[in-house]
Structures are given as structure tokens and as C-alpha cells.
């Protein structure tokens, strides 16, 4: 069983070997390679101590040296090289109180979370699989290394990681591992919201986002937040989230679609989502149940409130979750959208042929009155795109002013 290791990683391992140390690629890259997937990262584990790694290589960064990790830079790429270690006692349900370096690869693998992540490989030694990770890959099962209660007690985030891996890989959960999740669920209260959010986002962006139900069925929801737990009670047809594109805001909107937009925002802010995702999700949650008339002025009016990309996301979202009767009209809306984009209709105030600066140049005073005139001109253009020319709009502006006067 041979794994194709990238050339730079292979050179790092060979250099460590030449210096008298063991070196293996380890964890997710081994798992993904055995599954025929392209690994995102190639992590290396070694018997060399951090200071020895730094002596061997010219370009290094101390990314986590207190835990034994040094990043080695080769050809502008960084590879994490971590010393074999044994974790000390976990006092806070997340982090070991101390880390002890060891010369034993087996001891290093023993501290890892799941059997499928506890394998190592080198061209020299082949695959090291002391905990039957290959068997669990073949059986498509998520199983803790050793005692599941111990692994989850050490680090409660592993509870969410178990569910996330099952969603990403489409694997089932070994019975002891699943039972331990419910027991240790209260410890999730000790985990930072940022780390929880990362796992939930990966879960939602997986091929099986419906596994989000496992978070609730295993009693984890209340220990994330009160509002997150409440959203779970309204979560149904979760598997349909998989029909949405692999966009973070689309998948979060699919999950939170039945929430009030303010509650959706509260959940996302509590989980430390970025502002753009929060804004996009709030917009989709607010609008997706609103049927768009198959009428160009109405379509342009909705488009004027959104970016072109978010408007298309809205139509995509509605196709997945709206009633069948509306989906027939949606086809016409999509056809009109193509024509609006093709014709270059004005759907944004900044694209109007007349701006506030030109109105000021014509003698109009800045202020609420001018803002009202600009808004009326924009509504006129949304109704009749052919009106978007300077002469016509300047004449209309004068007429609107007279009406106001």
C-alpha cells in the first residue's frame, strides 16, 4: 500500500531520516490518501525534538513549539513537523495541562481522536496502523482510539468532530463512540464558540449536512446556546440542505430558514460567523418565503436591494425550499432575469444616468428633498429602463421638484 507523498514533504522526511530520526506523514493526509481523496495538508510527525528540527532545516517558523510543532518552509510551502508526544492531564476539557515528548510513534498515535486519524506512513516503513484504522475505513465507521469516554473527556470538541467526520465521509458511528457523545455533551459548554462554528460549518458544507440532526439528537444543542437549541426544534427536512450549493451562507440559511431573521443573526453572531456571512444569511432568511412576481419591474425592484450574486442565490434557495406551484413561476423569473442582465437594465442607484452631483450642478440643494428626488428617479428607471438617460431624468427631476414645491 503506497501513498504518493508530495516531493517537498518527502524531502523533509528524508532529511530527518538522514539526521538519524524517524519521520512519517500522519493523520488526515493518510486517511484521505487511503480513501482516494486529495489531502488538504500533509502533516509530519517525527522522533526529533523541536530544537533538533530547527537545527536540521534552514527556514522554520515556531507555530506551536510548546506543543512540539515547527513549520518547515520548502519552496514557499509550509509543512507542520511535530515531535512524537504524550498529552498530560486535561484540566479544562479542551487542552492538556502539559505535553511530554516521547520517542515512541505508537504513544503519539494512541493520543489521537479516531482510528481513521491515527495512522502514519513513510516510504521506508510503509503504513503504521496500530488501531485498525484501515478496517474502520473499509467498514465506514467513526470509532474513538481506545476508550471513547476518555477521548471525549480529554477534548469535548471531538464530539462535534465525530459528527462532522461522519457527515463528510458518509460514515456511521461505532456504538460506544455514539453513546459517549451524549454522556460528555455538557462539556461542550467549555469549548470556544469559534471552534464550534468551524466544525458546524464544515458539517454543513459536507455531502451529508442533514447529519446536523445528530447534534441535537445527542443532546449537544443546549450546550452550544439557547437559541441554537431552539432552532433545532424547527429543523426538519435537514437532508434537503444538501441540494444547496457549497456556499457557507447558503448552507447556514438552509439550516436557519424557519427562524426569524433576528434570531438567525443572534445565533450566527454568537458563533462568531463573519459579518458578510451573517448579512447574506439574514437576507436569504428574510426573503426566501416572499414570492417574486414574474414581472420585470418587480424583479428589478428586488434585485435593487441585493447584489446580483445574492439575488441568484435567492432564486436557487427558493427552487429548493418553496412550494411546487411557485417553482413554475420561478422559471419565468429566471428567464426575465437573463433578459434584464443581457439588456444591462439599471438595477443600482450608482448606475443611474443622473447622480446627486449632477442635480447639485443644476442648482438643486443637497438634503432630504434631493434624496427624495433621486429615489423617485430610481423608481422610474426600475419601472422603465429606457428612461435611464440624462436628459429625460433631468427634466423629470425638475417636475418632481415643482410638485414638492
Automatic annotation (TrEMBL):
Occurrences of domain Poly A polymerase head (ranges): 23-143
EC number: 2.7.7.72
Coiled coil ranges: none
One annotated GO biological process: tRNA processing
Stretches assigned to the CCA-adding enzyme C-terminal domain: 258-395
InterPro entries given in the database record: Bact_CCA-adding_enz_type3_sf, CCA-adding_enz_C, NT_sf, PolA_pol_head_dom, PolyA_RNA-bd
Top-rank taxon: Bacteria
Molecular function via GO: CCA tRNA nucleotidyltransferase activity; metal ion binding; nucleotide binding; tRNA binding
Listed Pfam families: PolyA_pol (PF01743), PolyA_pol_RNAbd (PF12627), tRNA_NucTran2_2 (PF13735)
Keyword terms, alphabetized: Magnesium, Metal-binding, Nucleotide-binding, Nucleotidyltransferase, RNA-binding, Transferase, tRNA processing
Domain tRNA nucleotidyltransferase/poly(A) polymerase RNA and SrmB- binding as annotated: residue spans: 170-214
EC class (word): transferase
Cofactor: Mg(2+)
Family according to the record: Belongs to the tRNA nucleotidyltransferase/poly(A) polymerase family.
Protein name from the UniProt record: CCA tRNA nucleotidyltransferase
Organism, scientific name: Lacrimispora sp. BS-2
Amino acid at each position: 500500500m503506497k501513498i504518493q507523498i508530495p516531493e517537498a514533504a518527502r524531502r523533509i522526511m528524508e532529511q530527518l531520516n538522514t539526521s538519524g530520526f524517524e519521520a512519517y506523514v500522519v493523520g488526515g493526509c493518510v486517511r484521505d490518501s487511503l480513501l482516494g481523496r486529495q489531502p488538504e495538508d500533509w502533516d509530519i510527525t517525527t522522533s526529533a525534538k523541536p530544537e533538533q528540527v530547527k537545527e536540521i532545516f534552514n527556514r522554520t517558523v515556531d507555530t506551536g513549539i510548546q506543543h512540539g510543532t515547527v513549520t518547515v518552509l520548502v519552496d514557499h510551502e509550509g509543512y507542520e513537523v511535530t515531535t512524537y508526544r504524550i498529552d498530560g492531564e486535561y484540566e479544562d476539557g479542551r487542552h492538556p495541562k502539559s505535553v511530554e515528548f516521547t520517542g515512541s510513534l505508537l504513544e503519539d498515535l494512541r493520543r489521537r481522536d479516531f482510528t481513521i486519524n491515527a495512522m502514519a506512513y513513510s516510504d521506508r516503513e510503509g503504513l503504521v496502523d496500530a488501531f485498525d484504522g484501515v478496517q474502520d475505513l473499509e467498514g465506514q465507521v467513526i470509532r474513538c482510539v481506545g476508550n471513547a469516554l476518555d477521548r471525549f473527556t480529554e477534548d469535548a470538541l471531538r464530539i462535534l468532530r465525530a459528527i462532522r467526520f461522519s457527515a463528510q465521509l458518509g460514515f456511521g458511528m461505532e456504538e460506544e463512540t455514539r453513546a459517549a457523545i451524549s454522556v460528555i455533551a455538557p462539556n461542550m459548554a467549555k469549548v470556544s464558540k469559534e471552534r464550534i462554528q468551524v466544525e458546524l460549518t464544515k458539517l454543513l458544507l459536507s455531502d451529508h449536512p442533514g447529519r446536523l440532526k445528530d447534534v441535537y439528537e445527542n443532546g449537544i444543542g443546549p450546550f452550544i446556546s439557547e437559541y441554537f437549541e431552539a432552532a433545532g426544534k424547527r429543523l426538519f427536512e435537514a437532508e434537503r440542505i444538501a441540494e444547496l450549493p457549497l456556499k457557507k451562507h447558503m448552507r447556514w440559511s438552509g439550516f436557519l430558514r424557519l427562524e426569524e431573521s433576528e434570531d438567525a443573526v443572534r445565533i450566527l453572531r454568537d458563533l462568531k460567523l463573519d459579518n458578510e456571512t451573517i448579512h447574506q444569511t439574514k437576507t436569504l432568511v428574510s426573503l426566501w418565503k416572499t414570492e417574486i412576481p414574474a414581472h420585470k419591474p418587480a424583479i428589478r425592484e428586488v434585485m435593487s436591494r441585493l447584489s446580483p450574486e445574492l439575488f441568484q442565490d435567492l432564486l436557487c434557495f427558493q427552487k429548493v425550499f418553496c412550494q411546487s406551484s411557485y417553482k413554475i413561476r420561478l422559471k419565468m423569473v429566471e428567464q426575465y432575469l437573463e433578459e434584464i442582465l443581457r439588456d444591462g437594465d439599471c438595477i443600482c442607484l450608482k448606475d443611474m444616468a443622473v447622480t446627486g452631483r449632477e442635480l447639485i450642478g443644476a442648482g438643486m440643494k443637497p438634503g432630504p428633498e434631493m434624496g427624495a428626488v433621486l429615489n423617485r428617479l430610481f423608481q422610474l428607471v426600475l419601472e422603465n429602463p429606457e428612461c435611464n438617460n440624462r436628459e429625460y431624468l433631468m427634466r423629470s427631476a425638475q417636475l418632481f421638484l415643482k410638485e414638492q414645491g
